[in-house]
Amino acid sequence: MISTIAQRHDGFDHWIDQINQICGAFNAQPLGSQFAGRIREHQSEALKLSFVDACQARLFRTPRDVAAGEGGKYFAVFQLDGTAGMAQGDDKVLLSAGDITLIDAARPSDFTYSENSRQLSLILPHQLVEQTLRFNQVRCGHRIAASSPIAMLSHRLILDATQQQHLTRQESEATLEALVSLLRPAISQADDGEDAHERIFRKTINCIDQNIRSEDLCPEWLAREVGMSTRGLYRMFAKKGLVVARYIKNRRLDLCAESLRGSGKEQKLSVLGYSWGFSDSSYFSTAFKSRFGIAPGEYRKQHA
């Protein structure tokens, strides 16, 4: 476990420097003569979060900051004490102790701390959130009330997780997955008024998961199964920024990786790849290394 504390030594400048090192590119400005700030980073395998204390300060990300920062993630912000104003796009909320909000790191955001405030900011990988929500639109910038069971359970889970001294990689990943699943009803855009294209897309995603082990699964077969042309299938995925064949391959690889994290060493890699639809063991190994940076055997050793 890594735990570092950056306290106010040089005042405001030191605080924002530490924010930028730990959380990414942000701008800030003091809102009065009584500024106070502190940040504590906590990292335990896949869990990456920080405790941010602030008083009389504004913390914000401009489009330039967004471009300079790392994409592909969300911030789940848990208000622990005090209050804070938050704005992202047209959404503006006031967070009180126990409230939660979700921020898209790929969009500008703005926090205002007029009084003593303490927040926990947890990084959620973009891929984890979107897959858990089954590619429904992610709802950011709104308040999840402290009184809701979702907020109470989520606060308890993440705070308990920070008290664990020796979480394994698998345990930390499972904690993130459990947290996103808990938040799903609050951060998934409601299906009311959903158009036919969205329903077909989700039907197609479900069809892929149901047939992911089949060697027959390919764009042409999938298009026939959901009742549309292959060209229409390609266009539908392209609107989501996806390539259908690549999505199928990556979905198989993600499930293979999940199996490797929980499989015994006695299982042959070629058999595992075949069970998830990879008929060519050499192709499976090459594709796996391309996606995860290491060969399947090394991946299994790391997560043993």
How would you characterize the overall build of this protein?
By secondary structure, the chain is of the alpha+beta class. The protein has two domains: 2-187, Jelly Rolls; 196-302, Homeodomain-like (Arc Repressor Mutant, subunit A, Orthogonal Bundle). It starts with a strand and ends with a helix. Helices cover 45% and strands 23% of the residues.
Sum up the structure in keywords.
Jelly Rolls, 304 residues, 2 domains, alpha+beta, Arc Repressor Mutant, subunit A, 23% strand, single chain, 12 helices
Quick overview of this protein structure:
It contains twelve helices and eleven strands. It has 304 residues and is α+β, with helices and mostly antiparallel strands. The chain starts with a strand and ends with a helix.
Indicate the topology.
Layout (H helix, E strand, L loop, with lengths): L1 E5 L5 H12 L3 E4 L5 E9 L2 E9 L1 E5 L1 H6 L4 E9 L2 E5 L2 E5 L4 E5 L4 E5 L3 E9 H7 L16 H14 L6 H19 L8 H15 L8 H8 L3 H10 L4 H19 L6 H7 L5 H12 L3 H7 L2
Helix pairs in contact: 4-5, 6-7, 7-8, 9-11, 10-11
Order of helices and strands: EHEEEEHEEEEEEHHHHHHHHHH
Shape: globular
Outline the biggest β-sheet: 6 strands, antiparallel
Radius of gyration: 22 Å
By DSSP, the count of extended strands is: 11
The CATH homology group name of the largest domain: Jelly Rolls
Low-pLDDT stretches are 1-9
Helix content: 40-55%
How many discrete domains?
Answer: 2
Count helical runs. 12
Give the structural class.
alpha+beta
InterPro entries: AraC-bd_2 (IPR035418), AraC_XylS_family_regulators (IPR050204), Homeodomain-like_sf (IPR009057), HTH_AraC (IPR018060), Tscrpt_reg_AraC-type_HTH (IPR020449)
Protein name: Transcriptional regulator FeaR
Keywords: DNA-binding, Transcription, Transcription regulation
Function: Regulatory protein of the TOL plasmid xyl operons. XylS activates the xylXYZLTEGFJQKIH operon required for the degradation of toluene, m-xylene and p-xylene.
